[in-house]
Amino acid sequence: MLKIYKNEVDNSEVTICKEMEDNTWVRLIAPTEQEITMVSSKLNIPNSLISQVLVEKELPRVKQVDGATLIVMDVPYMKDKSIKNKYVTCPLGIIICDNFHIVTVSLQKHTFMDDFANGDVDTFFTYKKSRFLIQIFLKSAEVYLSTLNLMDEDIQKMEKNTYYSTNNRVLINFLNMQKTLVYFLTSLQANGHVLERLQSEELLTMYEEDKVLLSDAVIENKQCIETSIVYRDILDSTMDTYGSIISNNLNVIMKFLAGVTIVFSVPTMISSFLGMNVPLGVVGESEFSFLVVCIISFFVSFLIACWLKKRNML
Question: 2-247 domain in CATH 3.30.460.20?
């Protein structure tokens, strides 16, 4: 998909253009070969600069070629909406061209980029390319933090369900969270290296306001990293505790079943003795023999059950 956006000087309203005019934002989402060829020829940039971002495992980095600068970053993406907390990271490429254009390339559609297209981001202008780049990093950090906060709420909810659980469903949910945190932490650290390079090297033209905004982006990214580390440690300890709880719950169940087996084995044992083919004397001749045997069996079972309960074995 190819879309072109532009807003005029001191006008925050974003409009859709049909042609790649000066100071436009060219947005490519899973582009076709025809769209890649058209954009590269119009903006005079290599085809490979666009196509290499469309590799799912592309790492965050900065690359400069004649006429353009490519910045690749990782952003969160929900891979499978049917599975909760099934997030991965997907590369997003930003190409800042020397001929007054900026191009964003991604395999997936990221909803936070729609905020720019709809004009919902303050001080966003398509002709301020460096600021646009930094704002993308800031919006991405917001998505990371909001996703991490949602995961924290889910962790707290699932902790309440683990006290009496003996199945693997909660453990699988924890595993999905753990994988997500690994993806997030790795991508955030790589994004941090890109931001530090942009901050230390004069790769792009930046005004004083842009430099302040870049410092904010670096701080936000570090905050995301620290939050991910905290949640990862919490999740690791929670999973260890959960494994112990499951083992303990199974032991409690087995202890209860063993106690019940002992209690119910008493009537079975007494009836087995009385069922032998031997003379029973008065016990076998009385018309109340069956009733007496039942009362004795239940009374003995009751005494054994009370003793097991007192010893915390039932």
Answer: yes
